[in-house]
Design brief:
287 residues, 10-stranded mixed sheet
Length: 287
């Protein structure tokens, strides 16, 4: 599978404290292939989106300030300020502009707070046809690897070895020169017997060793974990804390996903409860 290339990125900003840090996310994630950044803020009321309004002028002033910083970094920048339901406007804009990645925050007005299902960022994750990076940021990112971007210092890549989960590898490949370390994880939730469990563990280890060796070939430090206790989402959330993970990359769907469901149960549980950045990747059949 070839690395995903990203040439155009959409950044959705609501001006919460969380979303103000999205410029840092752009600098961390957007490799040399990225040429264009679309900056957007969605107005709830069409009246506020009129150019004669004070709120519109303030939004444009702040977006223009962000644009100037990005232009100084060499990006081409476009500002778009639609009005309507935020999740729909963001996903429609992503389709219209044919962006390769959406970057947004998960706190502040209209975004995920606690485990609120109807929130904007969760709806964007469900609806988007491209990868979505969500800046959670409840914790301070800590890394001793100052040569690598903070959010890419230690990346968790959960896998059940389905084609869906392996597609996330293409993101890692595209960011290989920025990533400090990758931790692969496989959770075995069910087994028929001790012998069956042992066989599943051995097979998982063989598969994970191959992935580790591939990362090593890219010059990335890598390791793996096989877990056999509990539901995958809970195990992975605990692993993130134990390993001080700075970014988790996972597919929206996985093995056994119900046809037509746009986000799998594991991805859903992690998205709603994670306390650090997450990047969710759609599978090929969603595009």
């Amino acid at each position: 599978m070839q690395p995903k290339t990203m040439s155009k990125v959409l950044v959705a900003i609501d001006f919460s404290a969380q979303s103000i840090r999205l410029l840092e996310c752009v600098y961390d994630l957007c490799q040399n292939d990225v040429k264009t950044i679309i900056l957007t803020h969605v107005f709830e009321d069409a009246k506020d989106a009129k150019s004669s309004g004070a709120e519109w002028q303030e939004v444009i002033h702040q977006l223009t300030s962000f644009k100037k910083k990005l232009v100084e970094k060499g990006f081409e920048v476009k500002i778009v300020t639609p009005a309507g339901e935020a999740a729909i406007e963001i996903t429609n804009l992503a389709i219209q502009e044919q962006v390769d990645l959406i970057i947004m925050a998960s706190s502040g007005k209209g975004y995920i707070q606690s485990a609120l299902m109807g929130s904007t960022s969760f709806d964007v994750v469900r609806l988007a046809k491209c990868p979505v990076f969500v800046e959670r940021g409840k914790i301070a990112l800590k890394t001793t690897n100052q040569a690598k971007p903070a959010r890419l210092a230690k990346v968790l890549l959960p896998t059940d070895f389905s084609l869906a989960s392996l597609e996330a590898l293409s993101i890692v490949r595209s960011l290989h020169d920025k990533i400090g370390e990758v931790v692969f994880a496989n959770v075995i939730e069910k087994s028929r017997s001790i012998d069956d469990l042992n066989a599943k563990v051995k097979q998982a280890e063989r598969n994970l060793i191959e992935l580790v060796e591939e990362m090593n070939a890219f010059g990335i430090k890598a390791s793996y974990r096989v877990k056999v206790e509990g539901a995958a989402s809970k195990v992975l959330l605990n692993l993130m804390k134990e390993e001080d993970i700075t970014l988790t990359i996972l597919p929206k769907t996985g093995a056994g996903i119900v046809t037509g469901l746009l986000i799998g149960s594991t991805a859903q549980a992690i998205s709603l409860n994670i306390d650090r950045p997450v990047l969710l990747v759609p599978t090929s059949h969603e595009n």
